[in-house]
Amino acid sequence: MLARWVTLALLRGSLLAGPGQGEVITKECAYYNDNWRAEKTNQSGYERCEGDKDKRQHCYASWINSSGTIHLVKKGCWLDDFNCYDRQECVATEENPQVFFCCCEGNYCNERFTHLPEVTTPGVKIQPPPAGLSLLGVLAYSLLPLLVLSLAFFLACWTYHQRKAPYGHVDINQ
């Protein structure tokens, strides 16, 4: 357990001692060129990223999606683009471009690439609540049930007194 903790601490320390906190150094990227014959290059492999030491290196991938069929165009190294900072995965976020593009930081991070368009919610117009009930409405809703109950109680009492014998209780056994 202690060895594992020490290893993690050393690894974390070496990462933090790099160019900047949270910054990943990219040295190599997956390489592909669909137009390799015309450009007289290799078709695929790995590319060593070269450039100024003070600039960040990234990997990229570009492809075309024709009716669900993905056609890879290019992969390789990409130089210092703030849109690629702190991205460990190659994910294109544009809705429906002609050519999809993604970039990322980290060795060979462009081997796998995906398209996840940003979710935008349509402008939902929130309707304000209906105007509050007026004082008359509140009184009507509150007093009307009380009035109905009182009327029912009054009718019950009146009916009881109408059916009651007029002379009260008379003992027949006398």
TrEMBL record:
A cellular component annotation (GO) from this entry: activin receptor complex
Catalytic activity, as annotated: L-threonyl-[receptor-protein] + ATP = O-phospho-L-threonyl-[receptor-protein] + ADP + H(+); L-seryl-[receptor-protein] + ATP = O-phospho-L-seryl-[receptor-protein] + ADP + H(+)
Localization: Membrane
Keyword Glycoprotein attached: yes
Superkingdom of the source species: Eukaryota
Cleavable signal peptide: 1-22
Keywords associated with the record: ATP-binding, Disulfide bond, Glycoprotein, Kinase, Membrane, Nucleotide-binding, Receptor, Serine/threonine-protein kinase, Signal, Transferase, Transmembrane, Transmembrane helix
GO biological process: cellular response to growth factor stimulus
Pfam families referenced in this protein's UniProt entry, alphabetically: Activin_recp
CDD domains, sorted: TFP_LU_ECD_ACVR2B (cd23632)
Transmembrane segments: 138-160
Keyword Disulfide bond listed: yes
Residues of the Activin types I and II receptor domain: 49-111
One Gene Ontology MF term: activin binding
Topology class, membrane: Single-pass membrane protein
PANTHER family per UniProt: ACTIVIN RECEPTOR TYPE-2B, TRANSFORMING GROWTH FACTOR-BETA RECEPTOR TYPE I AND II
Protein name per Swiss-Prot or TrEMBL: Activin receptor type-2B
Species annotation: Clarias magur (Asian catfish)
